[in-house]
Amino acid sequence: MSSIVLRGGLVHPGGGHDPFRADVLVEGDRIAEIGPDLDAPAGAAVLEADGRLVVPGFVDAHSHAEAAVFDPDVQLALLRQGITTVVTGQDGVSFAPGDGAFAGEYFAPINGAHPAYRGPRVADLLAGYNGRIPLGVAYLVPAGTVRHQVMGRESRPALPAEREAMTRLVADGIADGAVGLSTGLDYVPGLFAEADEIAALCTPLAPHGLPYVTHMRGGYEHNAQVGVEEATAIGAAAGVPVHISHFHTPADEAWRLMDWMAAQGVRGSFDAYPYTRGCSMLSMTMLPPALTAQETDHVLAQLRSPAQREVLRRDWFPQVAKNPSLGEDWPELITLAHTSAPEHDWAPGLTLAEIALRRGTDAVDAALDLLLAARLDVNVVMAVHDQRPASDLGRLFAHPGHLGGSDGIFVGAHPHPRARGTFAAFLATYVRERGDLGWAEAVQHLSTSAADLFALGDRGRLRPGAIADLALIAPEQVREAASYESPLALAEGIDDVLVGGVPVLAGGRLTGALPGGGVRASRPAPEPGRPAPAGPVTL
User: Fold this and answer.
1) Which residues pair with 494 in a beta bridge?
2) Do residues 78 and 65 make contact, with C-beta atoms less than 8 angstroms apart?
3) In this structure, what CATH number is given to the domain that contains residue 110?
4) 24: β partners
5) Any signal peptide, and if so, which residues (predicted)?
């Protein structure tokens, strides 16, 4: 059994405990001992922490890396932020269960193409990571994918037999080790699912204390109450915790709504990232939902039709201009991040207005032509008129229900910088510079709370017996380098990371070790004198 001693660090154990100076002895994949001046066993390696913070590896509570994580550049981007586990299967659409074809087409601008998964079960997806990546991948059963497996793109309510079939698929996913259920209620086919259908799909979660995770039905920033009320009703009916994805509503409203959820008897949490711009599929903004609900070939046929394009220009694009987050100048606020069409490989990083100018068209034709050329495989970064001040974001992140989540999308030549900067930006701006969170609170938000919510086993805390997922942080140097102008730059200040006791990042570079794999839901043993995290069973 290999051993390693982390010498001379400031240990942040997580779980609400204060930091202390100590060495950490790792034997095999577990922490064996924490204390001052530990003797290194014969043959043990020694890693000098040199006063850096030693923290439990961070958990990205909202990631779209399930296909991209096989790419060493993506692995490096995650580990340089201290992330040792990503929670995937987000927004109701991903590869399993099934053969992955629906997600591979419809959600290609978000998740990309999976290099190995061919189905049919969540267990097969998780097993495909073992020994092939340096960090852990947890997975939510995506309710939209489940619905598509049973009903295709049908927009009607599910029949009783269909609901039962969907619930069995969810139960199979939970049995395979999934860490919850996700919905994307602005995406196809999730937007067709009613609350009672979703509550039924959540019933297999309840015995395990696993969460319902939701990209709520439209209007986050300006109409969050509607989504929160529906999510709360679902959680109450199913008896499960509710986690709200990318909850970017004003801080005071977020605090009020989370208090209201708690008053309804539902345990709530949310993730949010430290950026004001969003990122999603261009088709979501540029096309009406009734059209995006159709099969890709049908949508493309409509985009080829001059008459149908004129209908969109006349009837739909005025609605785009009325979007409160965009407005009449929407072409200047939407920047192309990714297109799979080779003829447009010059365009990422340019706004739709700039692309239209170069092509000699207007922005409507530019947007529709981009979608047509790439078979809808286009994503964009979307700016907003009202940039939220850091003070409001800081108050949002200070809520005890907040978890770190990047919503990281790794598809594209000019992606949103949140994929490579979120966790470092939390630490640099909202901990070191502003003090909205202390370092111990940051560890709770970025590691412990997510490990507890998603039943990630003995992760999220540094204590004897815990899985040795560890990151070393230089508190005065950590910062995000990625920006909207240079979105591929790597975070700085986290140069050494262990996963399962194995160094996977050393001196800021990948070591080539691949101790990671699929992470299955399980509950840890409780700390002495402290209750176990919510959830009664180990899967």
Assistant:
1) 473
2) yes
3) 3.20.20.140
4) 6, 34
5) none
- Residue of 445, 490, 494 lying closest to 472 (CA atoms): 494
Contacts of 354 (CB under 8 A, 6+ apart): none
Pick the last residue of a domain from 332, 351, 382: 382
Domain range for residue 194?
A: 56-276+387-512
Q: Is pLDDT at 425 greater than 70 in this prediction?
A: yes
Query: What is the tens place of the pLDDT at every residue in 283-319?
Result: 998 999 889 989 999 999 999 999 999 999 999 999 9
Provide φ and ψ at 13, rounded to 5°. -75, -15
Q: Classify the C-alpha dihedral 119-120-122-123 as positive or negative.
A: negative
Q: Which two tokens stand for residue 515?
A: 């101790």
Say whether pLDDT at 377 is over 80: yes
Instruction: Say how far apart CA 454 and CA 306 lie, in whole Å.
Output: 49
Residues 406 and 257 grouped into a single domain = yes
Q: Are residues 197 and 324 in the same domain?
A: no
Whether pLDDT at 227 is above 80: yes
Helix (H, G, I), strand (E, B) or coil at 509: strand
Token pair 């970064």: residue: 381
Query: Which three-class secondary structure state does DSSP give residue 481?
Result: coil
Q: Are strands 3-11 and 20-27 parallel, antiparallel or unpaired?
A: antiparallel
The 8-class DSSP code of residue 452 comes to H
> Distance between CA atoms of 35 and 45, rounded to whole angstroms?
17
Query: By the 8 A CB rule, do 491 and 99 touch?
Result: no
Q: Are 213 and 183 in contact (CB under 8 A)?
A: yes
What is the spatial distance between Cα 463 and Cα 442, in angstroms, rounded to a whole number? 18
- What angle is formed at CA 218 by the lines to CA 267 and CA 424, rounded to 5 degrees? 65
- Same domain flag for 288 and 270: no
195 and 97 in a common domain: yes
Q: Where are the alpha helices (DSSP H) in 334-487?
A: 352-359, 363-373, 390-397, 418-425, 439-443, 449-453
In the chain, the number of structural domains is: 2
Alpha helices in 322-472 (DSSP H): 330-333, 352-359, 363-373, 390-397, 418-425, 439-443, 449-453
Is 215 part of a structural domain of the chain? yes
The pLDDT confidence band at residue 198, using thresholds 50, 70 and 90, is very high
Is the pLDDT assigned to residue 536 strictly greater than 80?
no
Question: Which of 351, 382, 413 is at the close of a domain?
Answer: 382
Is the same domain home to 306 and 425?
Answer: no
